[in-house]
């Protein structure tokens, strides 16, 4: 998505010319990426797979989630966070987010019931979850923490990379994410048993190539093995990721500095749990009302968080319809083991999240932005805020042209 160029093309060409497209036997790119990404994250094991969705599903399987279990998921995330729970036979229970647009620790604590086994902390839009609070609640209630770092590749929290803080982490390398090979994903953990189970979940035949993981009972997983093309491209992307997130964080910092020196009443930056180290992929503001957010978006192209479609639980059709599997006997919503789980999701169950989402506007940061783009974006935010929040007549402002204000970039943010 961000920067793909000649180096990626050459890496792919090399793999094709060597006809080394399969990771086992003669390939080396997937192994090399797993090793290097593990070092980058400071975790013991990384397993590459075909998507972030598959990675989440494998991670939940690895930690032993299954029928009879509830897994807490935030009201605002890509729907795969919730549907991946269903693939294990368990039930996703939707809980509120707070102004950071990540899962609210207070809501987690309030939602824990006798069947609750795990929580998925999603570093949504590249912003950090309140991980200290989440890990503390999890320890107190004996919950497992899965980090959905699909949008958080490259970000950190208190010196630890996203995806390395909880018991297991999942990443996406889809085209719209911070680091990409078109489609791809990975699971990271420092737990040997979880790592062995992840390998079983990703490839039913993997022991044939690599031997049986110690201490792990085999089970039949689905097929999510990555190709050497993915590994080759990711090895190039991994060299870029630190620069990409540093550029986005720097852009956000510069825009915030300009805005801070111009007080506009009612323009509040969304709270950040890791302002210096998260991905910096978006600059977010909470406006007083949804009408103000709507007006803002009509003047300059910002994204209203609540209008990104499938990122809010009210759009997750299969969950609202309780269709958790193709065959009804496999449907977690009908499984007798789930009788005691809270199986019903109502569209109006998280009004506080919906209110926050409709008031939150997001300005996407782009690593290729130059100083004049950044100045233009800051200018446009300030001028638009004067119209929306201070009643300045709209015909008295003029917006500056910035690379961010172009339809393709806008689609990109909307498309995640
Ligand atoms: C993209 C995404 C996923 C799924 O990743 P895919 O690679 O598209 O399958 C899961 N969770 C979140 C938060 C995402 O943004």
From TrEMBL:
CDD domains: AHBA_syn. The active site is at 177 (proton acceptor). InterPro entries: DegT/StrS_aminotransferase, PyrdxlP-dep_Trfase, PyrdxlP-dep_Trfase_major, PyrdxlP-dep_Trfase_small. It holds the Pfam family DegT_DnrJ_EryC1. Signal peptide: none annotated. One of its GO terms (molecular function) is transaminase activity. One of its GO terms (biological process) is polysaccharide biosynthetic process. Keywords: Aminotransferase, Pyridoxal phosphate, Transferase. It comes from the Bacteria. The modification N6-(pyridoxal phosphate)lysine is found at residue 177. Belongs to the DegT/DnrJ/EryC1 family. This is DegT/DnrJ/EryC1/StrS family aminotransferase. It comes from Hoeflea prorocentri. The lineage of its organism: Bacteria, Pseudomonadati, Pseudomonadota, Alphaproteobacteria, Hyphomicrobiales.
């Amino acid at each position: 998505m961000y920067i793909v160029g000649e180096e990626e093309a050459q890496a792919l060409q090399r793999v094709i010319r060597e006809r080394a497209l399969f990771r086992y036997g003669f390939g080396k790119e997937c192994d090399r990426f797993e090793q290097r990404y593990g070092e980058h994250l400071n975790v013991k094991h990384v397993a590459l797979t075909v998507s972030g969705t598959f990675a989440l599903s494998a991670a939940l399987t690895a930690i032993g989630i299954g029928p009879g279990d509830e897994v807490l998921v935030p009201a605002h995330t890509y729907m795969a966070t919730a549907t991946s729970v269903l693939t294990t036979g368990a039930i996703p229970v939707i809980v509120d987010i707070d102004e950071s647009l990540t899962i609210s620790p207070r809501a987690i604590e309030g939602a824990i019931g006798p069947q609750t086994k795990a929580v998925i902390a999603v570093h949504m839009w590249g912003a950090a979850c309140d991980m200290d609070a989440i890990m503390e609640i999890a320890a107190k209630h004996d919950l497992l923490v899965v980090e959905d770092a699909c949008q958080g590749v490259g970000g950190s929290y208190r010196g630890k990379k996203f995806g390395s803080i909880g018991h297991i982490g999942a990443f996406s390398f889809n085209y719209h994410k911070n680091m990409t090979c078109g489609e791809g994903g990975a699971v990271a953990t420092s737990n040997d048993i979880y790592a062995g189970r992840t390998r079983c979940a990703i490839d039913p035949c993997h022991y044939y190539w690599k031997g049986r993981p110690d201490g792990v009972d085999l089970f039949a997983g689905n097929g999510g093995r990555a190709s050497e093309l993915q590994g080759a491209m990711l090895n190039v992307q991994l060299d870029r990721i630190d620069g990409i997130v540093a550029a986005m964080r720097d852009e956000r910092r510069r825009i915030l500095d300009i805005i801070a020196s111009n007080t506009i009443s009612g323009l509040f930056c969304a709270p950040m749990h890791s302002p210096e180290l998260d991905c910096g992929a978006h600059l977010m503001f909470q406006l007083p009302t949804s009408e103000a957010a709507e007006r803002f978006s009509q003047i300059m192209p910002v994204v209203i968080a609540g209008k990104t479609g499938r990122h809010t639980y009210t759009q997750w059709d299969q969950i609202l319809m309780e269709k958790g599997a193709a065959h009804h006997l496999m449907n977690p919503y009908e499984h007798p083991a789930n009788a005691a789980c809270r199986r019903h999701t109502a569209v109006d169950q998280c009004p506080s999240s919906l209110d926050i989402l409709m008031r939150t506007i997001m300005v996407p940061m782009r690593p290729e932005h130059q100083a004049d783009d950044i100045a233009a974006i800051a200018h446009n935010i300030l001028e638009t805020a004067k119209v929306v929040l201070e009643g300045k007549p709209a015909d008295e402002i003029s917006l500056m042209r910035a690379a961010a204000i172009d339809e393709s970039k806008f689609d990109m943010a909307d498309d995640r």
